[in-house]
Each structure stands twice: as structure tokens, then as C-alpha cells.
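Dock magnesium ion; give full complex structure.
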Amino acid sequence: MLSLHNVTKNYGTFEALRNVTLDFTPGVYALLAPNGAGKTTLIKMLATLIFPTRGEILWNGDDIVALGAAYRDILGYLPQDFGYYKNHSPRQFLLYLAAIKAVGRETAKRRVGELLETVGLADVADKKMRAFSGGMVQRVGIAQALLNEPQLLILDEPTAGLDPKERVRFRNLISTLSKDRIVILSTHIVSDIETVANHVIMVQDRHIIANAAPAQIVSLLEGRVWETDDMAVAGKSGLVLTERQENGATITRFVSDSTAPQMVSAPGRRVWPVAPNLEDVFLHTYRDEA
Amino acid sequence: MSENWQLGVEPEVKDRAIAHILDEGLVHPVSAWERARTIQRELGTKNIFFDTAWSLIFSGVMVVAMIVITLGVPAAWRHTATVACAPLLFTVILAGTEMLERATAMYDLKQTAHFTIRQVTALRVMAYSLVAAVVTALLASLSATGAAEVLTLVPLGLAALFGCALAEVSTLRFTRSPWAMAVFTVVWMAVWIGAPVRFGEAWEACLASLNTALTSGIAIICAVALVWQCAALLKESRTHVIPA
Ligand SMILES: Nc1ncnc2c1ncn2[C@@H]1O[C@H](COP(=O)(O)OP(=O)(O)OP(=O)(O)O)[C@@H](O)[C@H]1O
Ligand SMILES: [Mg+2]
């Protein structure tokens, strides 16, 4: 089990996170927060790349930095900016990373083959990465994080650059993996989370403001999300979330605390309640942020 | 440890206590050299120098430059040339490979592997300095006229090499920017090329007057401190890591 106790992180005089206390047990945790909220900061601390200014991070009761190589051995990490070697093939590259992760030679060979299959890069396994698209490189990155069969898998925006098909493949991969390990991923893509995450962690103003199952988080807005084809109603009754075109009409989705926004609707216009989703919660929670 | 204490402890209790301590992960301290050997064995030479092929080409160029300078320079400037040339191979290769490492986003990722990039770098430093020391000693001997001059030029060259290596590895340990290494190299070269330009023959005379005991002493002290820096990189933990 991984736990953070009152972790605060300052960059000079700037405080990025304050008094973060979290416990992670096997399952998928999604860090859902806008740009600059501190997701990468939290993840880098978990990867022992930066250190808490105050507080402690423990793996089964031991300080993760003090554990050193023993901790790094159970860690799989995908940085937000993933670098790679243009002049090497994914296979060479993964074999190299397997070596520095101290995965045995024979195991590494087998594992690299399997992982290239898993991320759908088997047919370009021996092509130089120079010609790879952003999404292909990202998949090499995901494969690399899994080389040592980590008990703790930390992925910083793993789905950035993936096309819809690959995102689905990634989600399936994560749900298979999460049975017996801790998976922590950061994302702004709400659909990544809705299907796989058991826990959603939201960060706002340096604090953890929510840490709960997606259904529980969504229930915060239960009975408060509406749609209408009368734009004036939305503006009058609450916070506008999204707009979309449907059969030539503009449907506006909004949050209203008023029990009956129908009351202010113009004659002939319609207002109807809808089930809230994570995107609604995200937009509603971070409404005041630039 | 008193008699009573020994008598009071049952053998099983003692065994259990030892087993407990070992369980807690207390390991016998390993010397830097053993650590380096372990990494070398487990990681393999090929992986220690992964993606540094270009630096082989570059080091070839550097060695040629060193040969041309040390053997081609007039006898009147031999000490100046030895001091300026000796660190060339080491500094260019190390600055080059380290800059490349730091410039890619791979650096952080490699820092989270079992063998961290800082540990791998320590091994590279050891290898580069051994090769550079051999090249320096050979070139200094070849350029010398007579055995007496070998005895002054070789320690002088080694002192310059290890002095530079120590300063460079210290820079490497305490900085994170890719440019730190480039700046170091440029400044170092500027100083040792600038000095003779500025002071003329006085500079050469000054270097020639250094006695062998002094230069040997400097070489040995710097070499030992270099090994110490490598050992620190090998067992780096929280307090040594430069915050990003
Ligand atoms: N090295 C640093 N020095 C100073 N401030 C930093 C540093 N790294 C991050 N910050 C600041 O800390 C805050 C959190 O940054 P962080 O990168 O953790 O956000 P994030 O949630 O990962 O954002 P994104 O979604 O854009 O990746 C930001 O305000 C950022 O400007
Ligand atoms: Mg980030």
C-alpha cells in the first residue's frame, strides 16, 4: 500500500500542493484536474524525482526514498513528456530499458515481445522510431512502464495523443492490469476515467477536494443538471456547461440548483432533467479557473 | 558487551534477532568499487554506453587533436601544451554524453530505473578517466625528450586531467541543466588556453618550474577525490539529488 501523509510541496516560495493525505490500495486512481493543478507535481513525488517539502510518502510503511532501488523495482512510470531514441527501434529501446530496470535478459526478450503485441506495435517492432507518430511513441512509453511488471504503475497523461481506438485498447489494458496492482493516472480526458477508474482524485487550489468512486463524484450533481433548447433559460437559471447542435436546434446543458427551471422557460420551449456525468462535475468544479 | 548480557541471551533469540535485522533490509555496506563492478556485470558494458556511439567518433577526433598538439608544439611550449591538452578527451566526451542525456526527457525516466542514470554516469566517468589517463601518460612520454622530462610531463598531464575531471564531475553532481556541462567545458578551455596567451613565456616557465612531487601530489589527490565523487553518484539518495 502506498500512502501520503500531510505532503506539502513548494517550488521556492510557490506552494504547489498543501497537506495532501492519500492512501492507495490496488485499483485504478485517476487524477482529474485542470492544467497547472499539481498532477505532475504529485506524480513526480511518487516517482521519487522530486521530494516533499514536508510530509512523508510510504510504501508498506517504509519511506519510498529510503527504499531506493527496492522501490524503483516495483515502480512503472510514464512521464508526461516522454523522450525516446529516434535512431532505435522500439524493440532495441525496450530491451535497453529492461536492462536498466534489471529485468533478466531472457525474461526481457519475452516480455518485450508480449508488450509490443499488447500496445499494437508488433509489426513496427524493428522499425526506427524516427518515423513514429506521437501516438505510436506514447504506446512505446506505455509498454516501457510495464516492463518490470510493476506493482505500482504511475502514468502522467498516458492517453495524450492516442486515437479513439487506441484509447479503448489502453482502457482495456488498464482494467486488466488493475486487478492486483495500484494504477495512478492523470488525465483531463473524462471518458478515460468514466469506464476504468475506481477512484477519482480531484485537486483544486493545492488541496485534494475529492477522492471517491466516479459514481459518487457524479452524484454530487444529481438532480441539478438540465438540458434545454431555450438558451435564455440556461443563462438565467444557472451555470452553462456545454452546447451542442441537434436537429437544427442548439441544446444547452446547464447546472441549476433551482428545483424547477421549467418555470422560467418561454412558452413552446422545453427544459428537461438529465443524468450528470463526470464532465459536468469537472466543468462545474473548475468553473472559476482560467 | 558484558558477560551477563551474553549469558542472558538464548541462541534462538539471538538468531531471531539477526534474522529480523536482515529482514528489515539492513545490508552490508558495499564499497564503491564493488558497487561499480556489480552494475557493470548486471547491466553490461553495451548498456552502460547505450546511444553514445557518436562520442566514440568524437573521441577519435579528440585523440588526433591531442596527438597533433602535443607532438607538434615547439619544445619551448611543451608544458603549456600538456596542461591544456590532457583534459581534452575526457572533458569533451563527458560533457557531450551528459548534455545529450540531460537534453532528452528520458533523463527523469532513467532516474526511476533500478540502475539510475546517475549511477550509469558514474561508471562512464570511471571508464573515461581511465582511458584519458592512459592516453595522457602515453602522449606526455612520447613528446618528452629524455627520461627526466617524462618524469615531469607525465605527472603534470595527469594533474591537469584529474583536476579537470574532478571539477567537471562536481559540476555534474550539483547541477541539472544541460548547459552546465557545456559552460564548464568552455570556461575550462578558455582558462588554460587564455593563460599562456595572457602571460606568455612566464606561464610556460611557471609550469616548467613545478616540481614532480607537487604535480604528482595534485594528480593523486584529485584522482582520489574523483573516485569519491563517483562513489557518491553511485549511492546517491535524496540528499544528493538535485531538485528539478
Ligand atoms: N519546477 C517548477 N518550478 C516552479 N514551479 C513549478 C515547477 N513545476 C511546476 N510548477 C508549478 O506548479 C504548479 C503545478 O504544476 P504541475 O506541472 O504539477 O501541474 P499539472 O496538473 O501537471 O498540469 P498539466 O495538466 O498542465 O500537466 C503549476 O502552477 C506550475 O507552474
Ligand atoms: Mg502535468
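Observed: Residues 105-118 of chain A form the longest helix (14 residues).
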